[in-house]
Amino acid sequence: MTEENQKCPKCESPYAYSDGQLWNCPECFHEWSLDANNEETEQEHQFLDVNGAPLQNGDSVTVIRDLKAGKSTIKSGTKVKNIRLLDDPVNGHDISCKVDGHGSMYLKCSVVKKA
């Protein structure tokens, strides 16, 4: 396949476009590089906390900053147990969990650290 007609490796969209060194998909927002090895591109999404530590299903994490949750706030330092990592992120959130006093919600890996 030539550079002019790249398809998105994630959703197979024919509308992919080059933005310098990265290719972008306007439909699923996936980014990739033609220089990357195909095996690396197809690797499972890595879930890393704010410090770069890998996260796994069932881990406990700590929230690193105050987060608005409806009318209340989840305070920095709140511990969340038994997280579930999402293969298909929901609005950019890749962790599903239950926070004591707040119920079920989604969090981003960028706002938690492994406990």
From TrEMBL:
Positions of transmembrane segments:
none
Domain Protein YjdM N-terminal stretches: 7-33
Gene3D superfamilies the UniProt entry points to: 2.20.25.10, SH3 Domains
Q: Which domain of life is it from?
A: Bacteria
Boundaries of every Protein YjdM C-terminal domain copy: 48-115
- Similarity comment: Belongs to the YjdM family.
Q: What is the protein's given name?
A: Alkylphosphonate utilization protein
Species name for this entry? Halobacteriovorax vibrionivorans
